[in-house]
Amino acid sequence: MLRIQPMLIVTDIQNVDTQGGPLVLAMGCFDGVHLGHQKVISTAVDQAEKLGGEAWVYTFNPHPAKVLVPHKAPRLISAEPCRLRQMEALGVQGIIETPFTLEFAKLSPEAFLKDLIARAPSLAGVVCGQDWSFGCRAAGNFQTLEKFGKAHGFTATAIAPVMDGEYKISSTTIRKAIINGDIPMASKLLGRPFSLFGKVVEGKKIGRELGYPTANIDPDNELLPGNGVYAAYTLPQTSEVKNQESGIRNQESKLSPAPCSLTAGYPSAVFIGTRKTFGCQQHVIESYLLDFDGDLYGKTLEVVLIEKTRDIHPFPSREALIEQIKKDVARIRDLLSRHR
């Protein structure tokens, strides 16, 4: 799809101006924008292109489970910059982040859909996952959507689950892989490398004392990998907020970060966990950028994880730890050289 301006983000579908053209929505939570989610979104983009219209993602903020069952709410797989970047790469014109509140959750499926077409009269199609549900107590399903669409002039398309062999690709499976440190599996199901985003903050400078200065990262991600040492690439990030321009079309818009380019990243050894050798109980994410010498404090980094290389455990002495770090760096350098 030809993009004439950066992807937009609005909180009200009424602010979507397709300039008279048809609107196709990809509906869902898209917490990881994994291969299954990508199929939903790309189908909406294809339909919009055929109609000469625009494709937008329709999602909720926060995730409905955080409002309805906060004690059971899943941790979102990807940080917001990663989700936005992936959606933009798929060709959508923008994202509608509908505020999800307890009052909104009380809407019946029919009331939700009536409000939707009232606010978006150019709606021509809705694409969702086969098992997507909506409305109060999740009473609405694809059949509800399809029936309503036929009565009100828009098409409804259900996308079957994307499979990995005989298993369905799901957010649950990806979460388990990440928590278990199985980054190659998570990346395979996501359709891209798994990344951590965060700002570099002041640490205890233990790595510097050992001869391996690290960037101590305060993560934006809700879901963190299991403890261990990981081979990774670390990339500085830049973001920009787009100024409001004339017309409702640019209201609430912003740019997502530039696409991840591993060739622009620094090969890194990443430590995730607690520093048991030093008796520290604080959970940390530290990235040692190989062959890098510079000040990263206050900068936002993307850490693209490639593979877990070992579990962590306490060492009998500082010297023993330093010797292990030397081995870690050598192994990671070799692994990443082959990975490129």
Can you tell me about this structure?
- The protein has 340 residues and is an alpha/beta fold.
- The chain has 2 domains: 8-164, HUPs (Rossmann fold, 3-Layer(aba) Sandwich); 195-339, Riboflavin kinase-like (Elongation Factor Tu (Ef-tu), domain 3, Beta Barrel), CATH 2.40.30.
- It has 10 helices and 14 strands.
- A 6-stranded parallel β-sheet has the order 1-4-3-2-5-6. Strands 9-10-13-12-11-14 form a 6-stranded antiparallel beta barrel.
- It is elongated, with a radius of gyration of 22 Å.
Secondary-structure content class: alpha/beta
Order of helices and strands: EEHEHHEHHEHEEEHHEHEEEEEH
Name of the CATH architecture of the largest domain: 3-Layer(aba) Sandwich
Low-confidence stretches: 239-259
Distance between the termini: 30 Å
CATH fold node name of the largest domain? Rossmann fold
For the largest sheet, list the strands in their spatial order. Answer: 1-4-3-2-5-6
Main sheet record: 6 strands, parallel
In total, the number of domains comes to: 2
Shape: elongated
Kindly report the average pLDDT value: 89
Number of helices: 10
Round the Cα radius of gyration to an integer and report it: 22 Å
Quaternary structure: single chain
Strand fraction = 25-35%
Indicate the CATH class of the largest domain: Alpha Beta
Helical proportion, percent range: 25-40%
The CATH fourth-level homologous superfamily of the largest domain? HUPs
